Amino acid sequence: MISPTEFVSQVKKELQRVTWPSQRETVGMTIAVLVMVVCMMIYFCVADGIICWVLAKILGI
């Protein structure tokens, strides 16, 4: 088991090796995620509407 100070030292060294994304990359990925969420929302709303309509026709509601 390592000491807490050694652990913190290793964490600091590891964080220096991390390649952080630029602001432009972060904004681009955020926009991509938002577009995908909107597309999935539309898909699930349409699918839910179709399923509800089919069930209403089958059950005669």
- Structural Rg: 24 Å
Low-confidence stretches are none
**Number of helices in the DSSP assignment:** 2
Mean pLDDT: 95
Residues in helices, as a percent range: over 70%
Instruction: Please trace the helix and strand order, writing H or E for each element.
Output: HH
Beta strand count: 0
How would you describe this structure to a colleague?
The protein has helices at residues 4-17, 23-59. It starts with a helix and ends with a helix. The longest helix is centred in the C-terminal third of the chain and has 37 residues, at 23-59. With 61 residues, it is mostly helical.
Please summarize what this structure is:
By secondary structure, the protein is an all-alpha fold.
Question: What are the defining features of this structure?
Answer:
61 residues, mainly alpha, 0% strand
